[in-house]
Amino acid sequence: MIGAVRSRWTIVVLYTSLTILALVWLVPVLSAAMTSALPLSQIREGWWNLSFADLTFGNFVRAWEQGLGQHVVNSFIITILSVALTLLTGSLAAYAFAQMSFRFKATTYFLLITTMIVPVQIILIPMLPWFRTLGLNGGPQEYLGIALVHTAFGAGWAIFMLGAFFSAIPKDLLEAASIDGAGWFGVFRRIALPLAIPGIVSFAIIDFVFVWNDLLLALTLLARDRQPITVGLANLQSPHLAQEDLVAAGSIMAILPPLLLFAALNRYYVRGLFAGATKG
Fold this sequence. Notes:
Layout: H1 2-36, H2 40-45, H3 58-99, H4 105-113, H5 120-133, H6 141-167, H7 171-179, H8 184-195, H9 197-212, H10 216-221, H11 229-236, H12 244-264, H13 266-277
């Protein structure tokens, strides 16, 4: 009886703490949302006055017209290309490490996993000559160049996360498909890949958020007209021009795509995290 009461109090304390933390987290989000929908004059008086009669969506239009629209398009191109390349290479590599045997397997796996702990700042400047040599420092090729960089840094995470799902697939199932005449790629595409969908979706959401929020790589490697929304937001604010209304509107625009993606794929994401925690 005492144990049940203690357990109940533990749950109450836990959920109360999480609720308080959630409300604290919502304060800056609510501040940005209200600031984005109010005139600049009222913002400086305090958005908490809640004069809903003055609500406007003009801040979003002005932010879009001041160049943020092109930055949003750039962000989608870079993020979708990067996530697609990382999933393609990472899932193939994770399947190979989980289900195949080859020479130097352990050494190669170790080298790939070490990319998870290498700070991007270390290779940022040496990367610039490579971009010029490969012709990735101008034109639409810049999108491919930065996507390859994100893929190089994300592949280790993909192998680490997806390897647990592929290694949990019974070898008898894969061998049965091979006996039926399927090649290794057929086994991967028809058997292994569908079974690893929760893990793939979980990693895709994490990688999408990581690439979408990137500022340093985009600011260093891309020309101004191909930079993503993170750089566009930084350009909206300067010491000589305070545009809190436009910056807040741009911030909401930057938050929405990852938020909507998570909301749409939430059940796969949670399933993937729980499955990954009990496998491998």
